[in-house]
C-alpha cells in the first residue's frame, strides 16, 4: 500500500479478528506518519478536552461567564503533523484523506449527527465539505447553512471570538431533540457556539459537540 501522506510503500499484518470480519484496519497511512499524530491524554480540560489542563481551562471559564457550559470532546491535539494534514486535506483539497480518521467518528445512541457546514463559495472552491466527508461512513443530517465570511485560518484568536453568527437553518428541516454537532478543529469554540445557538432556536433540546482536534 502507498501512504497518502509521504507516498512511501508500506504493508500491514492483519490480526485474526480483522481477517475474520473481513475488515481493513488501514487508515491509509504508514506507521511513521500515523505515529506523528498525538492523541489527547490526561490531563485535559474536563469540558473541552484542551490538553495539559487539570480542571477547567480559561476558554471554558469565559464561556461560563456568558452562561454557557461547554460539553465538548476531541481526539487529537492540533500539532504540527495535524496542521500539515489539514493543509493537504482542507486547504489543498486532497479529498483522498477524508477516510484517514474515520474510525474515530462514531454514532451516539439517541443523538443525530450534524456536521458544521461550509459556505457555498468555499464548497465550490474546495469541492467538498471537509467535516461531512470525515463522517461519510456514518448517518448524519445537514441541518445548517453558512454564509460566506473570512476564512478562519486567516483570523486572529480575538477576531474569531468577535465573529458574527453566519449560520442559518435550512428550510423545512425536522429538528431532532438531541444533536451531536461535529467540527474538524476546535480553537476558541465560537463556531460551535454559533451553530448551537441556531439549532436551539430551531427547537433542539440537547446538544453535545465533537471535533477531531483540539
TrEMBL record:
InterPro entries recorded = ComF/GntX_DNA_util-trans, PRTase-like, PRTase_dom
Name the source's superkingdom. Bacteria
Q: Locate the Phosphoribosyltransferase domain: which residues?
A: 129-213
User: Pfam families, alphabetically?
Assistant: Pribosyltran
Assigned protein family: Belongs to the ComF/GntX family.
| Name of this chain's protein | ComF family protein
Amino acid at each position: 500500500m502507498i501512504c497518502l501522506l509521504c507516498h512511501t510503500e508500506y504493508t500491514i499484518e492483519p490480526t485474526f479478528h480483522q481477517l475474520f470480519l473481513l475488515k481493513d484496519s488501514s487508515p491509509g497511512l504508514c506507521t511513521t506518519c500515523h505515529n506523528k499524530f498525538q492523541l489527547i491524554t490526561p490531563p485535559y480540560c474536563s469540558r473541552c478536552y484542551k490538553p495539559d489542563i487539570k480542571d477547567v481551562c480559561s476558554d471554558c471559564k469565559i464561556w461560563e461567564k456568558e452562561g454557557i457550559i461547554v460539553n465538548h470532546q476531541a481526539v487529537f491535539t492540533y500539532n504540527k503533523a495535524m496542521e500539515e494534514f489539514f493543509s493537504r486535506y482542507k486547504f489543498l483539497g486532497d479529498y483522498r484523506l477524508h477516510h484517514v480518521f474515520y474510525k474515530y467518528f462514531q454514532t451516539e445512541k439517541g443523538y443525530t449527527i450534524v456536521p458544521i457546514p461550509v459556505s457555498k463559495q468555499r464548497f465550490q472552491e474546495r469541492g467538498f465539505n471537509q467535516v461531512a466527508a470525515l463522517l461519510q461512513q456514518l448517518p448524519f443530517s445537514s441541518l445548517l447553512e453558512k454564509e460566506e465570511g473570512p476564512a478562519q485560518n486567516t483570523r486572529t484568536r480575538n477576531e474569531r471570538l468577535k465573529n458574527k453568527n453566519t449560520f442559518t437553518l435550512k428550510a423545512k428541516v425536522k429538528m431532532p431533540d438531541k444533536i451531536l454537532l461535529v467540527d474538524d478543529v476546535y480553537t476558541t469554540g465560537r463556531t460551535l457556539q454559533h451553530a448551537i445557538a441556531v439549532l436551539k432556536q430551531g427547537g433542539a433540546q440537547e446538544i453535545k459537540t465533537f471535533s477531531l482536534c483540539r
